[in-house]
Design brief:
- This protein is mainly α.
- The chain has one domain.
- It contains 3 helices and no strands.
- Helix 1 packs antiparallel against helix 2, helix 1 packs across helix 3 and helix 2 packs across helix 3.
Length: 106
């Protein structure tokens, strides 16, 4: 039986896992996009690019792994919550595909 939530720490770990993982994914996506498409306009500057961005991704991944080792119940609950959203995403994109114009790759 899971422990009762009598303090905010488990909730912070639970939500922080998803926030940290998605923030690291966004930063990694910027690095990948800038590598694959070097001619695209750069609407913002990244100081210390790419080393600072890669360091952020590595530290974020370490934090996620550490949370998984030290707080497995909250981490597993967060992973299950994120995974539960995947079918909802695909269902909504299936239902909305007629309303959205396709993106053409240049």
């Amino acid at each position: 039986m899971p422990p009762p939530i009598s303090r905010p720490e488990p909730i912070v770990v639970y939500t922080g896992l998803a926030v940290t993982a998605f923030a690291a994914s966004a930063v990694a996506a910027v690095v990948v996009l800038r590598k694959r498409r070097p001619n695209l306009p750069r609407p913002f500057l990244m100081p210390g690019y790419p080393w600072l961005a890669l360091a952020y991704v590595v530290v974020s991944l370490w934090a996620v792994v550490y949370a998984g080792v030290s707080r497995p119940f909250e981490t597993l609950t967060g992973v299950i919550t994120v995974c539960a959203g995947v079918p909802i995403y695909y269902l909504s994109s299936f239902w909305n595909r007629e309303r959205v114009a396709p993106v053409r790759d240049e």
